[in-house]
């Protein structure tokens, strides 16, 4: 008997909690009825709860950083002094007027972008297109073969090829063919650094964008080709332009977006091949310059200005390319 | 029963003859049908049935030329992989042989034994580095898949206030290289007190937008009828997401696992982690590598170990990756 009474007197927390929740829900319900927008938000509250964890992370690690680097680019923040001083446009002016290395980096990045951007994109497409013709199992193997450089990221092989003494493969080959007499210091010679970086970057460009195009090609309706043959499509090239490309336009666009981000983000390859900084800044890219000011000099205000420019350039280039790709096949 | 060459040849010729005959008959049929209405459609049907005409618009010369081109480029891109595998088993004298060889002649396991010695003498036990990397990889991968797919489900299947804006933001976030946000990342992680913890590597990966984008594109294809009928049966959205949509979009999250796995497995983490016993495997290995020429053999063994895992993961899930990438299109 005693036990039962005690149980009744004891506040039942879970019950009280659910009562409180119900009350609260009713209150919210009434509140939400006042405005249609509010009502919509309230009815979809479960969906918002589901989105919340990711959006919180996304805001913290993508949205806020971009805004932060925009804001910091107008200051002379250096991690030590707080609060940072406001310098207005000075960082940007210095970048273009008083920093010859930045101009070098800009020039290098542009050269790399102009060659590796379209080049890598074209390579991804051509290989994906050729692989698509193969029978199924062979296709899986060949896909792996071409994706291998991006998968393993084995840049060390290139250091072996372009080693500076007789033992380097390129040197030994050229000397055997008697094209050169003395070994070339490939990775220490400003003349060769940029071409080598471009070559390696092209070799590594068959990444996610390549997979996207292969995936897209797999979905193209085979009957379209047969129908095209009846309608007078004569060869591979016509088939490509009139049937294949328009069918995978969406994947092409996605692939282009990834390619642009990759191309403008070139920097790790230079460091891995030629060290940091490369001789006479011959392989210096914007990303290298950014890393320099972030992790060596700690001039974060200045670094943020570089980051902001990089951000604006990527977005600008993307909108341009997206407009171009929408016109394919029309 | 082994057949002689002549018999095989004979069989082949009869096969091709048969096919030619079939072709002729089809062509005759097509000509006969031509006078009827919808001639084109009916002749097309016959055409697609005949086996020789299966591949339209292909010339043999072109096929061969393309095949040769493909194989040359293929060799160039697989070469490093072959070299890594072979180098790991080369004895020291073969590694430094001139001119360099590609294939190993006297395979040995000495390099792996040397690696064991090097690791045995390190200040922090090697298993600790391995544990760090595995922990970060597993937590980061599954955390990202869970969080991103939950958000992708809502973005793909519903239009709630704000979802269009979020979709736009995500597409824009794909467009710039990651180094743009590197500095603010450090500041933010620092102000959250996460420097020198595993979270400093895991959380930024979980916030990645490529995975969310791929998941969303794949989920758009899930028929709304499934979701609606489950709703009528009284399932909540979380339940529908977990037990109906997630099984359907398996290729998408398998792909996501691979992409995350690749990036996390090779992560250095050296910008946010300074404590030696919290450092990652690839960082430790890089330290071994920088010790100089004497460690070349060890380095080769290590490179083989490091690339094995992502390659294995990719091979086992390739078809899933392709299915996902087919849906990656951007309007």
Comma- or semicolon-separated keywords:
heterodimer; A: 330 residues; mainly alpha; MetI-like fold; 74% helix; 0% strand; B: 331 residues; 70% helix
Structure description:
The complex is a heterodimer of chains A (330) and B (331). By secondary structure, chain A is mainly alpha-helical. Chain A has two domains: 2-72, no CATH class; 90-159 and 186-326, Orthogonal Bundle (MetI-like fold). Chain A has 17 helices and no strands. Chain A has helices at 2-9, 13-32, 36-43, 45-72, 90-97, 100-131, 136-152, 156-161, 169-176, 190-203, 208-219, 222-230, 236-247, 249-264, 268-274, 286-296, 300-326. In chain A, helix 10 crosses helix 15, helix 11 (208-219) runs antiparallel to helix 14 and helix 14 (249-264) packs antiparallel against helix 17 (300-326). The longest helix of chain A has 32 residues, at 100-131. Chain A is extended. Chain A starts with a helix and ends with a helix. In chain A, 38% of the residues are buried. The mean pLDDT of chain A is 86. Chain B is an all-alpha fold and 331 residues long. Chain B folds into three domains: 5-54; 60-108, no CATH class; 119-326, MetI-like fold (Orthogonal Bundle). Chain B has helices at residues 5-33, 39-49, 60-88, 92-95, 110-120, 126-157, 163-173, 182-191, 199-206, 209-219, 224-232, 237-248, 250-265, 281-289, 296-316, 318-326. Residues 33-54 of chain B have low confidence and may be disordered.
What would a concise description of this structure say?
The complex is a heterodimer of chains A (330) and B (331). Chain A is mostly helical.
Q: Helical region count of chain B?
A: 16
* Helicity range of chain B: over 70%
| Overall pLDDT level of chain A | 86
Number of strands of chain A: 0
Q: How many independent structural domains of chain B? A: 3
Which spans of chain B have pLDDT < 50 for at least 5 consecutive residues?
Answer: 33-54
Structural class of chain A: mainly alpha
């Amino acid at each position: 008997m005693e036990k039962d009474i005690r149980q009744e007197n004891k506040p039942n927390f879970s019950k009280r909690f659910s009562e409180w929740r119900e009350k609260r829900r009713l209150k919210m319900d009434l509140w939400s009825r006042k405005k249609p927008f509010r009502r919509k938000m309230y009815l979809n509250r479960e969906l918002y709860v589901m989105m919340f964890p990711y959006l919180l992370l996304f805001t913290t690690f993508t949205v806020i950083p971009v805004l932060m680097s925009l804001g910091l680019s107008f200051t002379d923040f250096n991690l030590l002094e707080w609060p940072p001083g406001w310098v207005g446009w000075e960082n940007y002016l210095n970048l273009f007027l008083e920093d010859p290395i930045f101009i070098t980096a800009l020039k290098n990045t542009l050269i790399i972008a102009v060659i590796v951007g379209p080049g890598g994109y074209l390579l991804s497409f051509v290989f994906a297109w050729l692989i698509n013709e193969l029978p199924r199992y062979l296709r899986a193997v060949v896909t792996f073969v071409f994706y291998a450089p991006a998968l393993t990221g084995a840049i060390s092989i290139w250091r072996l090829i372009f080693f500076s003494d007789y033992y380097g493969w390129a040197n030994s080959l050229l000397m055997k063919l008697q094209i050169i007499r003395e070994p070339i210091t490939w990775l220490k010679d400003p003349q060769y650094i940029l071409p080598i970086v471009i070559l390696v970057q092209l070799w590594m460009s068959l990444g996610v964008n390549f997979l996207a195009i292969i995936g897209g090609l797999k979905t193209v309706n085979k009957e379209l080709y047969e129908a095209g043959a009846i309608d007078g499509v004569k060869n591979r090239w016509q088939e490509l332009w009139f049937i294949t490309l328009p069918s995978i336009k969406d994947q092409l666009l996605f692939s282009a977006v990834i390619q642009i981000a990759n191309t403008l983000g070139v920097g790790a390859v230079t460091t891995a091949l030629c060290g940091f900084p490369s001789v006479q800044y011959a392989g210096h890219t914007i990303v290298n310059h950014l890393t320099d000011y972030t992790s060596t000099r700690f001039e974060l205000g200045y670094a943020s200005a570089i980051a902001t420019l990089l951000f604006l350039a990527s977005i600008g280039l993307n909108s341009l390319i997206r407009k171009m790709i929408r016109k394919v096949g029309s | 029963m082994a057949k002689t060459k002549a018999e095989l040849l004979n069989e082949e010729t009869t096969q091709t003859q048969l096919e030619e005959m079939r072709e002729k008959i089809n062509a005759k049929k097509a000509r006969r049908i031509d006078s009827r209405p919808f001639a084109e459609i009916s002749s097309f049907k016959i055409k697609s049935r005949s086996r020789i005409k299966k591949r339209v618009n292909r010339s043999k010369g072109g096929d061969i030329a393309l095949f040769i081109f493909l194989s040359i480029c293929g060799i160039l891109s697989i070469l490093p992989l072959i070299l890594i595998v072979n180098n790991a088993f080369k004895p020291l004298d073969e590694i430094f042989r001139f001119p360099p060889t590609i294939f190993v002649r006297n395979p040995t396991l000495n390099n792996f034994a040397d690696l064991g010695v090097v690791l045995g003498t390190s200040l922090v036990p090697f298993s600790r580095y391995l544990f760090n990397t595995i922990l970060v990889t597993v937590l980061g991968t599954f955390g990202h898949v869970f969080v991103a797919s939950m958000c992708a489900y809502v973005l793909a299947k519903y239009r709630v206030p704000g979802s269009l804006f979020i979709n736009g933001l995500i597409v824009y976030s794909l467009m710039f290289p990651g180094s743009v946000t590197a500095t603010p990342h450090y500041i933010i992680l620092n102000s959250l007190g996460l420097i020198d913890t595993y979270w400093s590597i895991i959380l930024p990966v979980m916030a990645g937008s490529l995975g969310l984008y791929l998941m969303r594109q794949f989920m758009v294809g899930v028929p709304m009828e499934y979701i609606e009928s489950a709703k009528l049966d009284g399932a909540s959205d979380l339940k529908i997401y977990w037990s109906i949509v997630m099984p359907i979009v398996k290729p998408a999250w398998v792909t996501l696992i691979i992409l995350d796995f690749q990036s996390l497995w090779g992560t250095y983490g050296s910008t946010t982690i300074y404590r030696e016993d919290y450092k990652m495997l690839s960082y430790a290995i890089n330290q071994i590598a920088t010790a100089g020429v004497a460690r070349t053999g060890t380095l080769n063994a290590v490179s083989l170990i490091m690339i094995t895992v992502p390659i294995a993961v990719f091979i086992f899930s390739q078809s899933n990756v392709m299915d996902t990438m087919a849906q990656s299109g951007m309007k």
